Batch of 3 targets.
Target 1
Amino acid sequence: MSTIPRQIALTLIVIHLIAGLSVAGEPKIRLPEVTFDFGYTPSGLKAYHRYWLVNDGDDTLKIQRVKPGCGCTTVPLPSNVISPGDSVPLDLEFDTQKFKGKVHKSVSIYSNEMVRVDTATTNVRKIYFTGMIEDSYGPVKVTPTTAYLDTLGKTEQVITIANSSADPLTLSVTSPPPDYLLLQIPNAEVPAAGKAQLVLKPGPQTPIGAYNGSLTLRLEGKETFSLTIPIYGMGYFQ
């Protein structure tokens, strides 16, 4: 083989390798929600929220580790391997027992995705949560402050929200209770100097044994804020 054809062949091989590298897929995490606010939350109890991890890349995303900050834990992911276009939930449990006042915490997610932050490259993404840990619910009064349910005796919990201000408030759910519980909100508006009621019931899929969760509401008016109501229950065979 002459020198020129050999050089041409080597050049073609290099071009082919470069082309192969250029089309190689990469995983890409998308976090539909980066920061969540529990708002006013009773001290000494637990609050819960579900985040989602989405793979918007064109290669498999591998979650290597989820490291919560102080005072919170996460439930193991359903899968640490996320195919392109798929997603998995990341459930957070926040124990308020050791906190008081304003709280700002984070959870670190380690994966095979490499992202550039400022001048450095990292494989860590973070999600955040905030809360106001108090013995009251700030601008409103919530009765009871914690919901208790069982499938034998107390089969529903009525929660009353009393608005002492001169302006109406509009209710919306930012973090629902567990899927097996049924939430009814007959009226999404809390009148000025008035009350609104929510009803929480066990559904047919309520698990046997002890369970817990929480409900986070957003109240909008002249002042906008959130609050979280912890939920504890016991399921029995019917």
Note: The first helix runs from residue 3 to 22.
Target 2
Amino acid sequence: MNETIHAHFRHVGGYKFDITFDELPSTRIMSDEPAPTGASEGASAAMLLSSAVGHCLSSSLLFCLEKSRVRTTDLKTDVELQMARNPKGRWRVEEIKVKMKPTVSNVDRKKLERCKGIFEDFCIVSASVREGIKIDVDVLKD
């Protein structure tokens, strides 16, 4: 795993951006703001955040179950991200609710309970969001 990830955003019109990563050169993601600001032609930043949290938690739970030798036949994760206006009237992410439903055999229920108690601590994204993330922004001259 890389300790540093490099994401690059290229403006393609309106509020739409083509996103690429040095670590996965053949992967592209299209982002856009929802209407009426944007054209809703790609995932919004809030959607990308909710999917990052959901994917990280799903992977962490699955990893714990696999290490515990639990055969998981299915794992469904639903993420609901709530936004609200702050006192200045700016939209902010207020809460992220995650519901996970792993399907395991009855014999593995005890191992599932063990994983439920520890897996969140291994999710880089959700743990970082909970703790707050330092963001350093520098707007450069052209």
Note: The longest strand covers residues 72-85.
Target 3
Amino acid sequence: MNRYSAFLLGCGQSLLYGSIVVVIKATISINCSERIRVLIVYHGGHCVIEKPEIRISKNKKDFGHGFYCTELQAQADKWAKRFDTPIVSVYEYTLSTALDLLKYDTITDEWLDFIVDCRNGIPHEHAIVEGAMANDQVWNYIADFVSGVLTREQFWVLAKFKHPTHQLAFCTSPALNCLKYLKSYEVRI
């Protein structure tokens, strides 16, 4: 199977590509012979964001600087509820094979090391990074691991997620071009 085989799959089908399982949420046709993977993603915040941008802040995030979204609508709703005016912006994300996508399908030692580097301000060159979130509790475990309070093995015992999480960090301007604004809605509290 080559890298273009994924584009021949239809909506709802899945593909095992190496160790990555990709679920096709939607497809669009180009010239009646090619298909491109399209996902609906959500960004939870305090305002409508029709034109996403990358903002450099002092707060270090799991996957570094970027515009963060998720495939999980409930998670975006939760992100938005942190604000007085909880707004979720909805986008169509068209995967570009021309961009460097780093994807973590599960939490692994590599995922942990990447998050530690990003949270310590070490930049990376990836256009898009996708994987599980290190929520506040997990981040406390990561901090304890970095400071030597926990061993790697102790970290993994404590860090098992109780529910699925997901995040996509769009880290470059070309990555942001993969997003098409669809709509926004206010989350009811």
Note: The first helix runs from residue 73 to 80.
